[in-house]
Amino acid sequence: MIKDKKSFSINGYIMAAAFIGAKVATFALLVTTETDAIRVTCVFTLMLLVFCMAGLYMVQPNQGKVMTLFGAYAGTDTVNGLRWTIPFYMRKTISLRIRNFESSRLKVNDQAGSPIEIAAVVVWSVSDTAEALFEVDDYESFVNIQSEAALRIMASGYPYDQNKEGEVALRSHGSQIAETLEEEIQNRLNKAGVKVHESRISHLAYAPEIANAMLQRQQASAIVAARTQIVDGAVGMVELALTKLKEKGVVDLDEERKATMVSNLLVVLCGDKATQPVINAGSIY
Fold first, then answer.
1. How do the pLDDT tens digits run along the chain, 285 residues long?
2. 223 and 194 in a common domain
3. The three-state (H, E, C) secondary structure of the chain, written as one string
């Protein structure tokens, strides 16, 4: 594999000043001399200086100039400012800045086989200019396609929701899923000289054809959980009421009356609608 290396280059400001000075001196000699041989030499010198000035180029911050010589990789220059190198070098600019993109919404099946829609945001940058340009045909397209492929594989390995305690799910374990996705994408992009800085799920939902059914299932689960908590609380309150009545000696109830009282209290405490009280004016016996 082709690896990044430093190219030959020197300070362009010094070289530009030297070229300009040499051109002025050569042109002055051409004008003042009367010897044909010297004039021909001056003309060739001016042509050579113009050719050498083609080696000047500018490197912007967080950019690199990848250089090739007759098809062979000659190195990358990342020093900012005006630079000069051998004019025969072909130079291609590549950005080293951090970039990001959001994948399209992919429709995949989660671990349980339920169709879901998922999308992710990937933050990346070029870490090896030689690999990015020479190991893959189009590194930007490669990043997009491989990121979506990694997202598909990751999403199919986890359920949308937790089916049992401690299970890692797409919806409930965002940080862990993000780390797994980042690792999966990075493994695919190592050969392209790209570093993944961050990746996170930006969209997650059930597919439209099962969204209503899954919503009803979530609502049912929430209702069962709420009812369970209400029943637990009501049983505790009934137990506390019977204990207090017995401790304070307010009334002595036999087992049948206790059962009736428990039934009435549970109806009042667990009912989803307000109960209408009935006052007993006579004896409970």
1. 788 899 999 999 999 999 999 999 988 888 887 788 888 899 999 999 999 999 999 999 999 999 999 989 999 999 999 999 999 999 999 999 999 999 999 999 888 888 889 999 999 999 999 999 999 999 999 999 999 999 999 999 988 887 777 788 888 888 899 999 999 999 999 989 999 999 999 998 887 776 566 666 666 666 677 777 777 777 788 777 777 777 776 666 667 777 777 777 767 666 666 666 665 555 555
2. no
3. CCCCCECCCEEHHHHHHHHHHHHHHHHHHHHHCCCHHHHHHHHHHHHHHHHHHCCEEEECCCEEEEEEECCEEEEEECCCEEEECCCCCEEEEEECCCEEEECCCEEEECCCCCEEEEEEEEEEEECCHHHHHHCCCCHHHHHHHHHHHHHHHHHHCCCCCCCCCCCCCCCCCHHHHHHHHHHHHHHHHHHHCEEEEEEEEEEEEECHHHHHHHHHHHHHHHHHHHHHHHHHHHHHHHHHHHHHHHHHCCCCCCHHHHHHHHHHHHHHHHCCCCCCCCCCCCCCC
Same domain, 232 and 171: no
Other CB atoms within 10 Å distance of the CB of residue 151: 23
Q: Are residues 193 and 217 in the same domain?
A: no
Asked whether residue 284 is domain-assigned, the answer is no
Q: Give the domain range for residue 253.
A: 211-270
Q: Which residues pair with 124 in a beta bridge?
A: 99, 196
On whether the CB atoms of residues 237 and 261 are closer than 8 A, the answer is: no
The CA distance from 113 to 245, in Å, is 55
Classify residue 248: in a domain, yes or no.
yes
